[in-house]
Design brief:
Radius of gyration: 18 Å
Distance between the termini: 31 Å
Shape: globular
Number of domains: 2
CATH architecture of the largest domain: 3-Layer(aba) Sandwich
Order of helices and strands: EEEEHEHEHEEHEHEHEHEEHHHE
Number of helices: 10
Helix content: 25-40%
CATH topology of the largest domain: D-Maltodextrin-Binding Protein, domain 2
Strand order of the largest sheet: 10-9-11-8-12
Length: 255
């Protein structure tokens, strides 16, 4: 999909692969939408750049970014691995939490350590999601304990939770809500989410990555437009149009 056909400010169209992630990035046929897509389209219009948005699985998006085939990676958290390939621009503060369905009588879990020490609790994760070293180490241990299920996107995780094939997941609550609420097979769980912050996963920066392979002049144009849009809280305001206030408050706030 090509969008933002403004007068050329970038030397070439920007490759912005998109993968579904709640209402941060939505896909409807060949059309991409969601809070982050609205934001980057606003930025592209301001900067005079064109966007090409192929639809790919999240893990494929990560690979494309590492190979230099993606210029922008939307809806990202900061990580040392991604810093090898791009420049991170923080836009909001985000927090990943443990999400399950209400109704369970189990005691509250307040840390990854407690989660790992709770036998039998099955954890679903999304391939390509990365919330830092503590998260990755926990997934490795869960895999060793045969308690980890890895899926391609948040919708598949929502289906596992509803089918009682998984007990919990770790991601921004808004990502699970956004995936569930638009699919009639799982939409009933969207208002039945139990949210538990974990000590090892504090508030971090959420934003986007610009590839180091973007021509320097283009990257400067984009960075200027991105920072100008974010001074007006364009992304946070977009989130508030898509998500219930309690979910925004639980996982997203201004810098």
């Amino acid at each position: 999909m090509a969008s933002s056909m403004a007068s050329a400010g970038c030397s070439r169209p920007l490759e912005v692969p998109v993968a579904p992630m709640g209402f941060s990035v939505t896909l409807d046929g060949d059309k991409a939408g969601g809070a982050f897509v609205e934001f980057i389209e606003q930025v592209a219009t301001s900067a005079g750049c064109r966007l090409h948005m192929p639809q790919v699985p999240r893990a494929r998006l990560e690979f494309m970014f590492e190979q230099g085939d993606a210029d922008v990676m939307l809806a990202s958290t900061h990580s040392e691995k991604r810093d090898q390939f791009g420049v991170f621009i923080p836009l909001v503060q985000t927090r990943s939490v443990m999400v399950s369905l209400k109704g369970s009588t189990r005691p509250a879990i307040r840390s990854l350590a407690e989660l790992l020490a709770t036998p039998g609790l099955r954890v679903a994760a999304v391939r390509g999601f990365d919330y830092g070293p503590a998260y990755r180490q926990a997934l490795d241990q869960l895999k060793d304990q045969h308690r980890l299920l890895v899926e391609k996107d948040p919708l598949e995780v929502a289906r596992l939770l509803k089918a009682n094939m998984a007990d919990v997941t770790i991601m921004p609550a808004s990502a699970l809500y956004g995936a569930a609420v638009v699919d009639p097979r799982v939409s009933d769980i969207a208002t039945n989410l139990r949210i538990e912050p974990l000590d090892e996963l504090p508030w971090t920066f959420g934003g986007l990555y610009l590839s180091k392979r973007i021509p320097e002049a283009d990257r400067k144009i984009l960075e200027k437009a991105i920072r100008a849009a974010n001074r007006n809280h364009a992304l946070l305001n977009a989130y508030r149009r898509y998500y219930p206030a309690e979910l925004v408050n639980a996982g997203t706030r201004a810098l």
